[in-house]
Amino acid sequence: MFRIKSVIxxxxxxxxxxxxxxxxxxxxSIIKFGAVPHLPILFSILLLIFYGLVKKVSYKQxxxxxxxxxxxxxAAVFLFFFIGILxxxxxxxxxxxxxxxxxFTLITPTFFFAIVFVxxxxxxxxxxxxxxxxxxxxxxFIGMATVLDLSLAITAGAIxxxxxxxxxxxxxxxxxxxxxxxxxxxxxxHIRNMGWTTIPAFFLSLIFFGLLSxxxxxxxxxxxxxxxxxxxETGMIHxxxxxxxxxxxxxxxxxxxxxxxxxxxxGSAIAISFFHHSYGATEIFNIxxxxxxxxxxxxxxxxxxxxxxxxxxxxxxxxxxxALSMGGLLFTLGIVQCLLAKIESLLRKVSSVIAASALTAxxxxxxxxxxxxxxxxxxxAFGSQYEKVGLAPKNLxxxxxxxxxxxxxxxxxxxxGIFITKMLGVATLTYLPFAFxxxxxxxxxxxxGYMGKTLTYREVEENTIV
Length: 466
Hints:
Largest sheet: none
Number of helices: 23
Shape: globular
Helix content: over 70%
């Protein structure tokens, strides 16, 4: 995105007014009126086009900016399509149900909060969706905590922490794919690089939840048993269903491109599905496009397993293309360059660039309350700054997740914050102090930036992490 050249040089006041107007439009539409972000972004594009025309920029140049901006997201679009196929094929094969079932076997009478954190992390990685994890197994754990008279705030903090760890590190997650694609980093290289901050945050969170866990007996495990029995009744829980997962990891280790890795793993999952169910060709095509539909009769199980398919990714694809088109206009009209020029003198050191990009991602979450935009706009704005200080793009994609993806559930008026509060019945500010993983991730990414640790530089990207 930062390769798009500006055709005019707006004044600093004009740039600020336009950005404030766009933020206000997005903020009011999404937070006050509950609109999906697509429409306010589209209105913002119209505002930028109007400004460009007033400044005597030809419509052809504005259109070129739109197209160039959207073009930056085409790699992500294709990945999203294959992610949708992978999710539905992994449910067909039993891979995702088996992983979830295995997670529930970890429930023990002791270390309740720590176990909740681990299980929700496993489920989150398995399905690649933090909000689905919260709305299903998260609700079950809140019910158990209520019966056992345990802290709902800590329980909710453990659920949110685990769900967003899983979302962040899952190759099935749309935010993970978006962050890697927006800066041109291979998906699995991005996930590996996130491990430098994510793994310490995970184990620190696990320790905190372990220390906070009371010594109680789980006398009411009906909800967990119901989950396990429902999963067993699907007939998809078998040892061999983890083969598609093994294929995914093996191809990742062999550094096969993400798109091909997802395609091959999906193919193996479809083949595995015939071991326990004979799908017709029409059924397979319908599932791969429209998603898998679970019919166990257990609402929570069906909510977990009714998902996937190319069609399920259309919402994200539309949002990505619109946001990138808006970014293309912001660069074409010189607005981003104008704003960055004002703080250029402050962004000459690696540590300050990382801190500024992290604060930008956090700020967008707080001001707009939208997770995708925090990733998209931060990636668009800081790509050139990372290049100037010699940092490889995967450093930026890591910061975008550490300070963008996992911060959204901590904002009371954000999309994730509102949804989680509604599902769990625990206010955002109540569980916020206990969402340890979400709090630690941005802290660690900025801290490592100041220490100069775990960073990869462009000229030695293949070999060196400092």
